[in-house]
Design brief:
Blueprint: H1 44-55, E1 72-75, E2 87-90, H2 92-101
Antiparallel strand pairs: 1-2
Length: 105
């Protein structure tokens, strides 16, 4: 065999995800089923990322206060729990006003 040329012997498993042999399917083990699930102990940023995954980007919505294009997710009760109904889309200006009115950051 000339140098620099190699022949692969077992090509039947090429291009497959290694876990495809054990029945793992994409999308399984999401949320509470995931080994890395932190639940309520997740930090502020993590919960806002969770909201974006559940509802999509805030920019796809209109501000609940002024009807302009929203930019951020705002938590209503400032307890930051994983209750999806507690998050509303707000524009930056209305979010600041809302937080000041409710004595938060």
């Amino acid at each position: 065999m000339p140098s620099g040329i190699y022949i692969r012997k077992n090509t039947s498993k090429m291009g497959k995800h290694p876990n495809s042999r054990n029945g793992f399917k994409k999308g399984e083990n999401k949320g509470k089923e995931n080994i890395n699930w932190k639940g309520e102990s997740t930090k502020y940023r993590g919960k806002h990322m969770w909201v974006s995954r559940q509802k999509g980007k805030a920019s796809n919505y209109f501000c609940v206060d002024c009807s302009k294009k929203a930019r951020e997710w705002s938590n209503v009760d400032h307890e930051y729990k994983r209750i999806i109904e507690d998050y509303f889309p707000r524009c930056k200006k209305c979010h600041i006003i809302y937080d000041k009115k409710h004595n938060d950051k």
